[in-house]
Amino acid sequence: MTNDSLIQPGKFPGTGTTIFTVMSKMAQDHGAINLAQGFPEFDGPPLLRERVAWHMANGHNQYAPLAGVPGLQQQIAAMIFELYGSVVNPGRQITVTPGATEAIFCAVTACVHPGDEVIVFDPAYDTYEPSVELNGGVTRHIPMAYPDFRIDWQRVADQINDRTRLIILNNPHNPTGSVWWEDDIESLRRVIDGSNILLVSDDVYEHITFDGRKHLSLLSYPDLAERAFCISSFGKTYHVTGWRLGYCVAPESLMREFLKIHQFINFSTNAPLQYAFADFIEADPGHHARLAAFYEEKRNTFNKLMNESRFRLKPSAGTFFQLADYSAISDEPDTEFATRLTRDYKVAVIPVSVFYQRPPSQHIVRFCFAKHDETLGQAAERLQAL
Ligand code: PMP
Ligand code: GLN
Asked: By C-alpha distance, which of 146, 168, 157 is closest to 190?
């Protein structure tokens, strides 16, 4: 008997390695510019990094409290009040987590019983379905249609039944860059009215919206907030994805259930980083407010460069991603096209079909533009050759 057979049957027979890991490795193997996996090419603010070093050197190296360091919970609560006008209890409604990824898993685990149905919208971020399935839930996929990638609320209404436990929302949306309008809030309200459906709102790009658009957080709407886990990521907002830090905000009753899961997955979250963020947000409370303009400029730079290519860009209203249609260049499936682009043109991208249960017949890849202008320029030059 080999070690390999000891683990069989595995829990996740059809599952491989995530597309982000696959494409980053491929980029590295081929020496390609990595516009695939979504991470900024910039380090976090110098003061933030200094505060991490300071707290590590000054005795903040042991377990943080289960739900987070109080000073940071307070800063998060203040930010939520400033942005969304919502008063949340820092100690009872906010849990700091090792990234949004863990928060999503904890929230789903806290809600989903075997046989429960969970609605997600395709193209869907890749952790949602595994989180549901590991809990014995059933994922119901509702496609969002090109080119607007808005939610078809009638399809949601048609899908809801008495087994529907949860809807996972993602706004601003990865990979499409679509951002909710006020009527999406109204429609959500209408379809869940009278039900016990809970909401997980993945808001990791909440500070990155363009062209004057504002992020509509469920936290601004008390009737929706009372049934929602709202999740964000310090990695995205402060350019430090490798630090693995995020948080979840929920009503007390939901947060109590969330914490029962979180305590056995991670117990608590990296202490010195939390102290450092508490200091940094207090010292520079405007950081998040500058992010949208920063990335809007990146988007515009990238769009201008790419307009010289044969890719057709889908306008991005938020996030640091840009979809592009390559049907004028090739009719290859997107996974093959992405591989060829990485290998032969030295630019790595994400094929969008992997985020669908039933991929539509479209030829679209995702670029990440969270890069220095020189990197975007170099990549565009290579892409213009196609
Ligand atoms: N949700 C979405 C939509 C994301 O794009 C990401 C990652 N970038 C995450 C969740 C996970 O965030 P984190 O790195 O904080 O775990
Ligand atoms: N969220 C990032 C993206 O969409 C990747 C995160 C990861 O690799 N886990 O590219």
From this structure: 157
Counting from 1 in the atom list of ligand 1, the atom nearest the Cα of 103 is 16
Tell me which amino acid residue 386 is: L
Structure-token pair, residue 209: 């919206």
Burial of 165 (0-12, 13-18, 19+ CB in 10 A): buried
CA dihedral 128, 6, 3, 7 (to 10 degrees): 0
Ligand in closest contact with the CA of 370 = 2
**8 A C-beta contact, residue 205 and residue 318:** yes
Write the Ramachandran bin of 365: left for phi over 0, alpha for psi from -120 to 50, otherwise beta. Answer: beta
Over residues 139-149, the pLDDT tens digits come to 999 999 888 99
The Cα–Cα gap between 310 and 345 comes to 14
Atom 3 of ligand 2: nearest residue by CA position: 38
Give 195 Cα–ligand 2 centroid separation in angstroms. Answer: 33
CA 174 to ligand 2: nearest atom: 4
- Ligand 2 binding pocket, CB closer than 6 Å: 20, 37-38, 174
* Cα 24 from Cα 155, distance rounded (Å): 35
Q: Read off the pLDDT of residues 254-300 as tens digits, 9 standing for 90 and up.
A: 999 999 999 999 999 999 999 999 999 999 999 999 999 999 999 99
- Closest ligand 2 atom to residue 36 Cα is 10
